[in-house]
Design goal:
391 residues; 13 helices; Dihydrodipicolinate Reductase, domain 2; six-stranded parallel sheet; alpha/beta; globular; Rossmann fold; single chain
Length: 391
């Protein structure tokens, strides 16, 4: 086996504690070398708990280590641009947490810096690494539902569900640090997932955008938006809609893809009262028990009598449900990125993907300013209200 990939983290807060540190520990090819946080207690405690060799309060000192090959940038979004660029310039590959940065210009500068240094940059959109979403993508590519024509994805979650129970700092309440609220935080996941499922991130996948992001119910808690709606026309003509919120008392989450031959539902974070499985599909295609694509072939159960799918030609058309193993998406993400380093492959969620999601997010603020559709790519740098660059 090749040597382990040495990993350092910039930021040692909640997303590292509940996601990245456990992911590194479960991947045999990974080794946590050093932790960093501006709060000494966080960096030191993380290093002691997760077995790192060293800890720092200055990320530049962490980047000087020759035994670190990969840096996970898990600081507030305001610092992603500065720290990710410094990391690739120090010769490190980078996984950068979403949202990728604070402005569209920052995102593209991160992409160009990684290219210039010939280093890999991946955005931490773990949603793509849930097995049900991976399988959904495979089934769409196998023409199970035909050409995707319309898609919808939502993730609603109250501020306090994460902030009060999990988060170690209050930066998500501060627009200067966070960039924006629901649109930036949970919205980044849903835009990325929906556009990926419906097509491709090559070139410019989104043609134009209209929408809003506003604070409706958070009062004095934060000036960040708690409600966001994003309507997109994709380059292939399809229509896509994302809804994200930070005001609902419980998590609500679903993604729906409508094609001209079928329909697909997928979810990962939670279920709602009308949903019992992580993946459900209906196809108008004619299949036999031999031609039904995986994973449906292995997961489809007959309704009444065990040989019915063998006898019927074509098989009866019905909803087909899948409940894959609940593998840890962050572990799969870290393992995938290490394979990309070893084999010199392009990461699944490449830097350009994150920059294009930022284009969509920034376009919402431009749309609110103009009261109209906004064409992509943007021709100017767009700043979320209250956001302040780190440099």
């Amino acid at each position: 086996m090749e040597k382990k990939v040495g990993i350092g983290t910039i930021g040692s807060g909640s997303i590292c504690e509940i996601a990245h540190f456990p992911a590194i520990k479960m991947v045999p090819e990974a080794q946590l070398i050093a932790t960093m946080d501006v709060k000494e207690k966080f960096a030191r405690n993380a290093a002691e708990k997760w077995g790192a060799k060293a800890w720092y309060t200055d990320y530049k000192k962490l980047l000087q280590r020759d035994d670190i090959d990969l840096v996970i940038v898990a600081s507030p979004p305001r610092y992603h641009h500065e720290q990710a660029i410094a990391a690739v310039e120090a010769g490190k590959h980078v996984i950068c947490e979403k949202p990728m940065a604070g402005t569209n210009k920052e995102g593209w500068e991160m992409v160009e810096a990684a290219k210039k240094q010939n280093k890999k940059l991946m955005i931490g959109c773990n949603q793509r690494f849930w097995l049900q979403n991976e399988w959904a993508k495979q089934l769409i590519e196998k023409d199970l539902i035909g050409t995707p024509r319309m898609g919808y994805s939502e993730l609603h979650e109250h501020w306090r569900l994460y902030q009060d129970q999990v988060a170690m700092t209050p930066f998500r309440y501060d627009p200067k640090e966070a960039g924006a609220g629901a649109l930036w935080d949970v919205g980044a996941h849903r835009i990325d997932l929906l556009v990926w499922l419906m097509g491709t991130f090559d070139k410019n996948p989104v043609k134009k955008v209209v929408g809003l992001a506003k604070n409706q119910a958070s009062g004095e808690l934060t000036k960040c938006d708690d409600t966001a709606a994003v309507l997109m026309e994709l380059a292939n003509g399809a229509v896509a809609y994302v809804a994200s919120a930070r005001l609902t008392p419980i998590v609500s989450q679903i993604t729906e893809i409508d094609g001209d031959k079928g329909i697909l539902f997928t979810s990962s974070e939670s279920f709602n009262p009308f949903q019992t499985v992580p993946l459900a599909v209906y196809s108008m295609n004619d299949y036999t028990s031999d031609t039904l694509p995986e994973p449906l072939k292995s997961w489809r159960y007959p309704t009444l009598f065990w040989p019915e799918d063998i006898i019927a030609k074509p098989m009866q058309k019905k909803w087909m449900t899948v409940s894959p193993p609940r593998e840890w998406s962050y572990g799969r993400m870290v393992k995938h990125f290490i394979e990309c380093i070893y084999q010199n492959k392009t990461p699944l969620v490449k830097g350009e993907d994150g920059a294009r999601v930022l284009e969509v997010q920034c376009a919402i603020f431009k749309s609110m300013e103009t009261g109209a559709w906004v064409n992509l790519p943007l021709k100017e740098e767009v700043f979320p209200p209250g956001y302040a660059k780190s440099k």
